[in-house]
Specification:
Helix content is about 35%, strand content about 15%. The chain has eleven helices and eleven strands. Helix 1 packs parallel to helix 2, helix 1 packs parallel to helix 11 and helix 7 packs across helix 11. The two termini are about 25 Å apart. Pfam families: NMO.
């Protein structure tokens, strides 16, 4: 099926920028879209909740003024702890956000409202079972969060998950998991995905709402410095060891927690992401902080070079 026409406007690369808690803000989203990729942010990043209307108004206005800007997306967490969901979705409908990215529970109640104004819904999944539930809910695309992705991530190899889902689904797929350069974007397409889904690489940008110590930790870390644990939110995720140690915890001895412990809407929930830094296993390939537009231009050059090299390979 490929990329939907409504999301294929002015794309310089087949990339959706992952919505990162705290990190993704209007400055970053606007820079991403103006660079030619789909920018996104979690609705919960706009605090207090009344700020979301201002963010959406600003993003729409600035992108409308640029005829070359790509579409944008908003992430909605579907979980009982998210007391803002109804409020935030009403604003997304009001502003006709082109793409809604949903996480955790299947977006059965959200899809009809988004489709009513012509928007699309993509859902995060880490398994075939989650994909089937999302498709039953009527989503327009799947985001496969595979092993090595930053934040909440699954454990399946992208080769395994893409292959199994492509056996029964021919719609849009975005692939996540340690994608930090143009070569990896091309590889995602070669494996059967329509989009690469990139998060961690954009933490190391000037526009990202991350403290300088966090950005430096991204530059200083490699895959061995990433810990996979459910301790901080109740859902397994990848975090930088350095930040866990700084919080006075032992990365090798973190207790188990379950989903009932999640609280995305409260200050205590935000602290996990503020002080305990999420990152994917691709950090070892990130060496400098760039402006988002400069980063996207570099990704585009790497992508083109990789495609040329592959086409010139006799095999």
């Amino acid at each position: 099926m490929g990329i939907p026409a409504s999301l294929n406007q002015n794309l310089a690369l087949p990339v959706i920028c992952a919505p990162m808690f705290i990190i993704s803000n209007p400055d970053l989203v606007i820079a991403q879209c103006k660079g030619g990729v789909i920018g996104s942010f979690p609705a919960l990043n706009a605090r207090p909740k009344e700020l979301l209307d201002e963010w959406l108004t600003r993003i729409k206005s600035e992108l409308a003024a640029d005829p070359n800007a790509a579409p944008f997306a908003v992430n909605q967490i579907i979980h009982p702890s998210n007391e803002r969901l109804e409020h935030d979705m009403a604003l997304c409908v009001k502003h006709e956000v082109p793409l809604i990215i949903t996480s955790l529970s299947a977006p059965t109640q959200i899809v009809p409202h988004v489709h009513a104004y012509g928007g699309k819904v993509f859902h995060d999944v880490i398994s075939v079972r989650h994909a089937e539930k999302a498709l039953e809910a009527g989503v327009d695309g799947l985001i496969l969060v595979c092993a090595g992705a930053g934040g909440h991530a699954g454990t399946l190899s992208p080769f395994a998950l893409v292959g199994e889902i492509r056996k029964f689904y021919d719609g849009p797929i975005a692939l996540s998991g340690s994608i930090t350069n143009g070569q990896a974007i091309l590889a995602a397409q070669a494996m059967g995905a329509d989009f690469a889904y990139i998060g961690t690489r954009f933490i190391a940008t000037t526009e990202a709402n991350a403290v300088e110590a966090y950005k430096q930790a991204i530059l200083d870390s490699s895959a061995k410095d990433v810990v996979y644990t459910p301790y901080f939110t109740g859902v397994h995720g990848n975090y930088l060891t350095k930040s866990i140690i700084a919080a006075g915890l032992d990365p090798a001895n973190l207790p188990e927690r379950d989903k009932s412990a999640m609280n995305f809407g409260a200050a205590t929930g935000a602290k996990a992401w503020k002080d305990i830094w999420g990152a994917g296993q691709g950090v070892g390939t990130i060496d400098e902080v760039l402006e988002a537009g400069e980063l996207i231009a570099r990704l585009q050059q790497e992508y083109r070079s990789a495609k040329t090299a592959l086409c010139n390979n006799p095999f």
